[in-house]
Amino acid sequence: MNCPVDWPEPIVRVQSLSESEVPVIPDRYIKPPLERPTAAKQSTDASDVNIPIIDLQGWDGDDDLRATILGQISEACRKWGFFQILNHGVNPQLLDRAREVWREFFHLPMEMKHVYANSPKTYEGYGSRLGVEKGAILDWSDYYFLHYLPLSLKDCNKWPALPADCREVLDEYGRELVKLCGRLMKLLSINLGLEEDVLQNAFGGQNIGACLRVNFYPKCPQPDLTLGLSSHSDPGGMTLLLPDHQVPGLQVRRQDEWITVKPVPHAFIVNIGDQIQVISNAIYKSVEHRVIVNAAKERVSLAFFYNPKSDIPIGPIKELLAPDKPALYAPMTFDEYRLFIRMRGPRGKSQVDSLKSRSMT
């Protein structure tokens, strides 16, 4: 299964549609009735419901505090698949500048952004669609995708040269988040009853993958008819999202409800990806989420993906298996799984669930 070298139709930048002030969105952005934001049940008390918020202050401190934090993360992973972390050790000024350089990039003249236009082959660069199905219904968003690790894929020339400090800020941001993800992997491993380095070693040790997708959601004249990003679970290992804390948009599916996440300033939103679901044999589960758009405000978010080494088979860790707990998934490399996703585009939890059905037959 080879990925096409180009998109099936000419690319239309959603930002250009938004800035043209069209009163009606084109048909190809209109979701089927059951997929629209108003179709599904929303959380019943929006003022109270939110994903767990965990303060990591002192996680390297005394044993009691560490045990409390471990317990909070364990419960969040098992019951939600999503949580926010505060006092995570990444400089708040770096977070603010990282978000702002991307906002500045997306407001550059279109011809300057087109220099970085991407293709389905790698997705790296400036994009406006996922999946290569001709005639597909599209999401109301543009994005920029780039690689941090492995170093063989890191090419700073593919990163925006403007704003002037963009590459410097992104490099520092990537280094800090790789370190933070490594610390979180230890906590997840301990909570699975494993030695702290088992999960990291299953990912390939230090030879892991890391990449960034910056999402730009322009203002939309008919936000009830479309989505900024369709329902999906993340295909990789673990995601750290730096949200636009002034404009909520991320929704997390919990049972039959969609809960709009209320971001905390300078917090990261952490979520379990499909690869950790596979490695943990579904003790931890990735969770469907989507993004709604706004008629009055644009929105910028940075999704950092921490992934296994791309060419090693990923399957359930043997320490988590037993006669009454057989492996639910056959091993598959992340390269194979990522290509599987890219060909189809976002489709809820059907991608990882289909792997389970394969292994059970």
From TrEMBL:
Pfam families listed in its UniProt record: 2OG-FeII_Oxy, DIOX_N
Would the keyword Protease turn up in this protein's UniProt record?
A: no
| Gene Ontology terms, MF aspect | dioxygenase activity; jasmonic acid hydrolase; L-ascorbic acid binding; metal ion binding
Entry keyword Metal-binding = yes
State the UniProt keywords alphabetically: Dioxygenase, Iron, Jasmonic acid signaling pathway, Metal-binding, Oxidoreductase, Plant defense, Vitamin C
Co-factor requirement: Fe(2+); L-ascorbate
Q: Name one GO biological process term.
A: regulation of defense response to fungus
Against InterPro entries, the record matches this protein to:
DIOX_N (IPR026992), IPNS-like_FE2OG_OXY (IPR044861), Oxoglu/Fe-dep_dioxygenase_dom (IPR005123), Plant_2OG-oxidoreductases (IPR050295)
Q: Which reaction does it catalyse?
A: jasmonate + 2-oxoglutarate + O2 = (1R,2R)-12-hydroxyjasmonate + succinate + CO2
| Domain (Fe2OG dioxygenase) ranges | 207-308
Q: Of which family is this protein a member?
A: Belongs to the iron/ascorbate-dependent oxidoreductase family.
Q: What is this protein called?
A: Fe2OG dioxygenase domain-containing protein
Q: Which organism is it from?
A: Carya illinoinensis (Pecan)
Q: What is the lineage of its organism?
A: Eukaryota, Viridiplantae, Streptophyta, Embryophyta, Tracheophyta
